[in-house]
Amino acid sequence: MPAERAGYTVTMFLVDVSPSMGKTRVVDLPDGPKGEKRTREMTNLEWALQFVLLKIQEMIYNGRKTDQCGVILFGTEDTENCINEEGGGYDHVTDFIPIAQPNSGTLAKLQALKPSTVVGDPIDAIIVGIETQDRYLGNKKTWTRKLVMVTDGENPIEVEDWELTTKKMNALDVRTTIVGVDFDDEEFGFQEEDKSHIKRENEQFLSTFVSSLTNGILGTCAFALQECVRPEPKLTKSALMAYVLRLGDVATRPEEAVEVLVKTSKCTAVARPPSMKKFAKRVKVGEAEVDDMDIDFDDSNEVDGEDKKDIYAMLKMRTEYYLDRVDGEGGDGENENDNPEGEGEQQDGEGGEKKTTEAVERVDKEQLIKGFKYGSSYAPCPDGQFPKLTTEKGIDICGFFPDKNLRRDWAMSEVQYIWADPSSGQQQVAFSSIVQAMLERNVVAFARWVTRDGMDPKMGVLVPRSFEKVDCLLWVQMPFADDVRRYTFQSLENLVSKKGEKIEKHAYLPTEEQMSAMDAFVDSMDLMHAGDKDEEGNRMPWFDPRFSFNPAVHRIKQALFHAAVVTDLKTNPLPLPHPEIVKYLEPPRRVLKRAHDATENCKSAFKVQQVPKRVARARKDGHVHAQDDEDEELLLDQFAKRPTTQSVRAPSPTLVESHIKGNGKGKERVDGDVMDVDSTTEPESDGEGAVTQGKKAKKGANALPTPTHSQRSSPDPAESGGASAGSTGREPGRIIGRAHPLEDFEKNIRQGDIVSKAVEDLAWVVKDIVMRPFASRRHEEMVRCMKKLRETCLHEDEIDAWNFFLRDLKASCLAESGISNHEFWEAIQAKGNEMSLISAGEASSLGGQSKISESEAAKFLQT
Amino acid sequence: MAPYDDWNKADEDEEDELQDASTFEGQRDVVLFCIDASESMHAVRDDPNGDGAKTSHLYTALETAMQVQKRKVVVGPNDSVGILLFNTSRKNESEVRGSTEYKNGTYVFQSMSQVNAPKIQELMRLLHEFREDTDFFNKEFPPMEEGKVPMGDVFTSCNWALRDGAPKTGIKRIFLITNEDNPHPGPKAARLVTSAKTTLIDLTQTGVTIEPFFISTPEKPFDPTKFWSSVLPPSFAEDDDEVDESLLPASISISRIEDLLAQMRFREQPKRAQFSVPFELAQGLVIGVKGYGLITEQKKGSYKYFTDLGDRMEVVEPKTLYVDEDEQNEVDKSKILYGMTLGATSTSNDAEDDSAGFGSRVVPTRNKVFFTAEEVQSFRTLGLEPGIKLLGFKDLSELAFEDNTRHSTFIYPDETTFSGSRRTFTALMKTLIKKGKIGIVRVLMRRNSSPLFCALLPQAEKTEESGWTEPGGFHLIPLPFADDLRAAPIEEACRASNDVREAAKAWISKLQIKNGSYPPDGNPNPALAFHYAQLEASAFREEYDPESFDDLTEPKYDMIHKRAGAILKEWKAAVLDDQSASTVIVHAGSKRKADVSIDEGEIRSKHKGGQLSKLKVDELKEFLKAKSQPVSGKKADLIDRVSDWLVAHP
């Protein structure tokens, strides 16, 4: 199909405004925000006009001067048209909007239309339409003529001599569309009940009328409206760009070097959603600002008369430059206000903004110098760019390699076609010989492409393709060394033990049973024969990029168009997306059904479980919530049997003090809370939480379940629902928190004089954590804690404390009733004697004392 | 959630790139080089690459540190770097270091601070001194006379060094370079191991990771099991995974000293995930994955505006405001609504409307004609949550080469969100490789992006000769939408005869890399390198000589001509002989201009006779166009260009 020339079209819209069009109908609206069914009553005229409005909106959107339209009404009280002026007749037909490029006024005028009191004849309107169009186009022979009529077909039509009309229309090649309100349509599956006799006759007639046109269609309005939002790729004809394909040194060894004249054109080009403009309501001076954009429309508020108008102004972007003098250490400027209620981003944004404007000063752009940052140094560069590399436009082949070695995942750009120069047979032969030779040798080339003299070069591959009558190359950009990120990942399949041996069985490795479950699942979800049937009745593959419309592009376009043609989105909300847009968003139902058993099998074989989400970490603003005990207490309630053997001591102010201020050695040790805040900097930022201008964008409380693991090698606290972000989970009076017990402990031990308290508290915390739900995630950490604890006890003469703790722990772990944790005890047992009671022998080697014998210690662990 | 105004980034693809760039700017990388300066590291030997030059492990380590700083300074100007030497008797003067006294045997040569030009220059001077006098390092950083520093002390010093100088936020890493596989032999070994281990755990608890670079030489082989495997935490690079104590640390790399820089390259950039989302294989079967941009176009970075504060230059931050131009007032972001202009304001509007100004819209009060930011976002995402959803499987051959629009993303299982992710992921990967299948998935990478369809291309783990291991996982290859596809504009052209094709095959096979592939490593981006080189010169206040720049991406002309020069000549002759070359395919030209004949012979003869000016502008243009030359300018320019071309192509 030859690409149709865009624009150069005059479309005549013929709109039936006869009284019958005032009949009302109930139109389904998309479900409301709470899933409730919504409907709206509107006249047939309003309903049918939507089609006209959408068509006109598309013209406005495309913005072509040569895409014009005119509107003619029939059934008007008055008569005003070019034929009537000259020869009379053609009554009740009005040239409503003269042919011109449409604009918002066109839409507004149509939106204001009301049904009249007299009836009009569609055929009269058609004749007036083509005549008006013909006169307007006079000498513009090449323009395309289109005619669109909307009618309900309820009024008499003068059917005499209609063949003359169709003959004229065919002669002028008028492309005609007739949209009928509630016309029967077998394919669409619509049939109107209680259809009036006259309408039935008229439908019959219009159908005959259209079929005698070389270029005409008749459709029912509901279908037409749906088709209005059917996604259609915008046909863009790619421009051919001239290049030279080179091989060898053309400058100094031309007799051996190759130059082939080629043209390139785009093979893929990402389509973007139409851009939306920003608007804001103007607030008149002195008028209180009312939040009018509430979607819930409260009638009682409306005291103003109907004439009252709101003005929405389009906003322009402006850039200002600010110097932040305070921001010495960069990262500390993140003083955005905390928002414990999580009232959403708006507040955050405002708050942050105010802060910034206070702390920073605005600088005039004229006083600024362009340059680059070189670390903390500054490299001036007044032009904003250093001199560029001298390059010569063209495509230089660097070498060939087997096509099987082409890394598909390295392709990093849109694809370009490369063709031989269409005007030279010799170039075509030369080019085609290269392409065919490459195909036969199964190689692809890699090449360096410079789009213009002096432009930065790109590297890429040239892949040969042979079509029916022409050969071409495809170009795609490949990464430079700088573009490849070599991240290391742990091997998925080869797990090696500390002893250097390969591990065959591990929770990370799928078992045979799991492999076969996956095998069946993959087979059952195969799409190769899951699509529509071809001509021979064979099922084709499901999913074809040629029919996969970009949902965002088409949905936004639909939304924009809709907002432009309706007068109020509250009463006329955006309809659902066209089925074509969403068809690939879910797997085909047939396949899902087929895969049901295999899926269930997989589920039970792999036993994937969601790890309970942890509460988002502390914000970077240093605001730490007062210990958020709510959830904690809930947890504690469930486990009221919390050990009470150890009396909770009165909070010791000195300890807490030293903890928070970390006095003594300046900032040697920052308070535990802040430490935690520090380490929140995730080495792996999810793109969304990306950072702008050095200010951390904060994640909303309900943001992605991005694990907020830091590089800390210990698993993070398990009290998932528990202590709020940044809290160390310390109980009052305790100097060891639940969040990072080992860290706290070591810190305290280093400080020296509070060993007994630290030992006691760590012991308490370990037991507390082990006896909580989800403790298994922290088993390993607890074992580490215990190791450290034991070591400390051994060296610091706290042997009895250890032995007491271990017995207590064992009893709790193996408790017959209530809460127990056998698994953890098994882990301790596995550690052997190094985790057992401290025996007399062991103690004495370090000058300590113990009442436990060697054998007692060994036996203790075995049971 | 991204700020409201983010959604309207002019184009979505750039949004990706932008976010990537912002991680460079915002996420600070903090690297402390912790280099062993023991006697064996000092040992001077011949530089294998140099002519008689001498080198030592320490020299190479410091040079590597310098190279890494040079890279960091351009790629991540906010990153911080420091250098700590251990096993040296040199000490920090305590007053310089403030309150902290580092442990004996450790010396902070460059304290932690943001990378900058003077720091790099200092290192370069130092390296230069060594080249002049190989004993220089021995004087500068004398090795300890007796024994070795306990590793525990080294880690403690590292901890202090990081604490003193490193910014609070950032990814802190220690690059440990040593050739000593058993620093603590002898009776006290066990205790020293324990203390090393605990101090290291202490260090990792504060969010620091260790990246060891162990040097192994034939004379002094390195056995990690002697000491290190029991000290280093398992899989420290895998900060995110639940660590299994029984596994050998994956990131212990042992290399020859010559590979140090290359090894460090692999780890130079901290691993950053772009997103972490659930991957739904089926309803109720969901695993966690993280996405990594392994192929991302590295850009120059745009210039910044600086203001002169007298004593220093300071960066100013640009801020974007939205203003109502007529009223000249800034509009709060939360009040912004979205819609489209309705073209020029219609002429029929009444006076009141006209006063509203261009682009404004007047509607009856309380009518809603614009969308809110949330609504716009829901149009973008179609109400979907971020995640990957499996749609089904297809044959690998269904993934056409031409179905590409942008770079791929790599995904790897994330055990921390869903336990069992790894085994499920691995099983899926192995099954797809075995069956030669790909997955088709719907992907919403971020809360604010639009759904994409991607091919899920399995990647088997593969160790390359260079020692690099290609990780196992899946590549997400975004497929083009129907809207992105363009038709081929040319449907017919002349084709080569067998003879010509055979002639072409001859030189193609000569120019083929046997079993090779496209080599990204051999092709550093010349434009970037050129930019960096000039940036460096500017920061060092040096003149830059553009002549000194070597573009590695230029074709290897000598090799091409040596291998295929003669056969290329033959092929060119064959092309000229080809019969079909003279047939002309008639094109349905869309141009309505009169056909312009551009007979080259005629133009050449005119050129010889100095008659080019007799030709019409159209003819000149047509000729130039056929030669892929620009057709801009006046007639005189065109004539010059034509004659230039004819001279250049006799």
TrEMBL record, chain A:
<protein>
    <recommendedName>
        <fullName>ATP-dependent DNA helicase II subunit 2</fullName>
        <ecNumber>3.6.4.12</ecNumber>
    </recommendedName>
</protein>
<dbReference type="InterPro" id="IPR016194">
    <property type="entry name" value="SPOC-like_C_dom_sf"/>
</dbReference>
<feature type="domain" description="Ku">
    <location>
        <begin position="360"/>
        <end position="495"/>
    </location>
</feature>
<keyword id="KW-0547">Nucleotide-binding</keyword>
<keyword id="KW-0067">ATP-binding</keyword>
<dbReference type="Pfam" id="PF03731">
    <property type="entry name" value="Ku_N"/>
</dbReference>
<dbReference type="Pfam" id="PF08785">
    <property type="entry name" value="Ku_PK_bind"/>
</dbReference>
<keyword id="KW-0779">Telomere</keyword>
<dbReference type="GO" id="GO:0006303">
    <property type="term" value="P:double-strand break repair via nonhomologous end joining"/>
</dbReference>
<dbReference type="GO" id="GO:0000723">
    <property type="term" value="P:telomere maintenance"/>
</dbReference>
<keyword id="KW-0233">DNA recombination</keyword>
<keyword id="KW-0158">Chromosome</keyword>
<dbReference type="InterPro" id="IPR014893">
    <property type="entry name" value="Ku_PK_bind"/>
</dbReference>
<keyword id="KW-0234">DNA repair</keyword>
<dbReference type="InterPro" id="IPR006164">
    <property type="entry name" value="DNA_bd_Ku70/Ku80"/>
</dbReference>
<dbReference type="GO" id="GO:0016787">
    <property type="term" value="F:hydrolase activity"/>
</dbReference>
<dbReference type="InterPro" id="IPR036494">
    <property type="entry name" value="Ku_C_sf"/>
</dbReference>
<feature type="compositionally biased region" description="Acidic residues">
    <location>
        <begin position="673"/>
        <end position="687"/>
    </location>
</feature>
<keyword id="KW-0238">DNA-binding</keyword>
<feature type="region of interest" description="Disordered">
    <location>
        <begin position="642"/>
        <end position="735"/>
    </location>
</feature>
<dbReference type="GO" id="GO:0043564">
    <property type="term" value="C:Ku70:Ku80 complex"/>
</dbReference>
<dbReference type="InterPro" id="IPR024193">
    <property type="entry name" value="Ku80"/>
</dbReference>
Automatic annotation (TrEMBL), chain B:
<keyword id="KW-0233">DNA recombination</keyword>
<dbReference type="Pfam" id="PF03731">
    <property type="entry name" value="Ku_N"/>
</dbReference>
<dbReference type="InterPro" id="IPR027388">
    <property type="entry name" value="Ku70_bridge/pillars_dom_sf"/>
</dbReference>
<dbReference type="Pfam" id="PF02037">
    <property type="entry name" value="SAP"/>
</dbReference>
<dbReference type="InterPro" id="IPR003034">
    <property type="entry name" value="SAP_dom"/>
</dbReference>
<dbReference type="Pfam" id="PF02735">
    <property type="entry name" value="Ku"/>
</dbReference>
<keyword id="KW-0539">Nucleus</keyword>
<keyword id="KW-0547">Nucleotide-binding</keyword>
<dbReference type="GO" id="GO:0042162">
    <property type="term" value="F:telomeric DNA binding"/>
</dbReference>
<feature type="region of interest" description="Disordered">
    <location>
        <begin position="1"/>
        <end position="22"/>
    </location>
</feature>
<dbReference type="GO" id="GO:0043564">
    <property type="term" value="C:Ku70:Ku80 complex"/>
</dbReference>
<keyword id="KW-0227">DNA damage</keyword>
<feature type="compositionally biased region" description="Basic and acidic residues">
    <location>
        <begin position="1"/>
        <end position="10"/>
    </location>
</feature>
<dbReference type="InterPro" id="IPR036465">
    <property type="entry name" value="vWFA_dom_sf"/>
</dbReference>
<dbReference type="InterPro" id="IPR005160">
    <property type="entry name" value="Ku_C"/>
</dbReference>
<dbReference type="InterPro" id="IPR016194">
    <property type="entry name" value="SPOC-like_C_dom_sf"/>
</dbReference>
<dbReference type="GO" id="GO:0003678">
    <property type="term" value="F:DNA helicase activity"/>
</dbReference>
<keyword id="KW-0234">DNA repair</keyword>
<keyword id="KW-0378">Hydrolase</keyword>
<dbReference type="InterPro" id="IPR006165">
    <property type="entry name" value="Ku70"/>
</dbReference>
<dbReference type="GO" id="GO:0006303">
    <property type="term" value="P:double-strand break repair via nonhomologous end joining"/>
</dbReference>
<dbReference type="Pfam" id="PF03730">
    <property type="entry name" value="Ku_C"/>
</dbReference>
